From TrEMBL:
<dbReference type="Pfam" id="PF14534">
    <property type="entry name" value="DUF4440"/>
</dbReference>
<keyword id="KW-0732">Signal</keyword>
<feature type="signal peptide">
    <location>
        <begin position="1"/>
        <end position="21"/>
    </location>
</feature>
<dbReference type="InterPro" id="IPR032710">
    <property type="entry name" value="NTF2-like_dom_sf"/>
</dbReference>
<feature type="domain" description="DUF4440">
    <location>
        <begin position="36"/>
        <end position="141"/>
    </location>
</feature>
<protein>
    <submittedName>
        <fullName>Nuclear transport factor 2 family protein</fullName>
    </submittedName>
</protein>
<dbReference type="InterPro" id="IPR027843">
    <property type="entry name" value="DUF4440"/>
</dbReference>
């Protein structure tokens, strides 16, 4: 699996409880309702490789600091996330963390994931953190740090 795509899988972040048929959404109890809704939408957008939702939920100045030591822009991340033959089939989050303040939040944890990257199967474990900002009344991810864990 390409390392930049590993970072995409890590972004499937904050996913903790199973919703249905292999799709999972985060456990966002205790978060402001609008942030919880945005985080759930982001989880599902990544799980479904939904380009339009990713465009909406990632800030234009978004940066992914991935495990490969390389930063990705919003456009690069979306291209990797929606590449043909790439699909996440399982994601589980443990050790979830959330820190919220007016107009900002950090959501993170440990992620275990399985799926395919451009048709090749993968399994991985990583630690991630997503930084959210509320701009013009809507929540968007502005930064993600992700690294592969043993």
């Amino acid at each position: 699996m390409r390392l930049s795509h590993w970072s995409w899988i890590i972004l499937a972040a904050s996913i903790a409880t199973q919703a249905h048929a292999g799709q999972e959404v985060g456990d966002y109890r205790g978060l402001p309702q609008d942030l919880a809704a945005a985080a759930t939408a982001y989880d599902l957008a990544q799980f479904k490789s939904d380009r339009a939702e990713l465009e909406r939920l990632l800030a234009d100045d978004y940066t992914l600091a991935g495990s490969n030591g390389r930063n990705q822009t919003k456009a690069e991340f979306i291209a990797d996330s929606t590449a043909p033959g790439s699909k996440t089939t399982y994601v589980a989050i443990t050790q979830q963390v959330s820190k919220v303040w007016p107009n900002g939040a950090v959501l993170g944890g440990m992620v275990d994931a399985k799926g395919s990257d451009r048709g090749k199967p993968f399994t991985m474990r990583a630690r991630f953190v997503d930084v959210w900002a509320k701009r013009d009344g809507r929540w968007q991810v502005i930064f993600t740090q992700a690294h592969i864990a043993p």
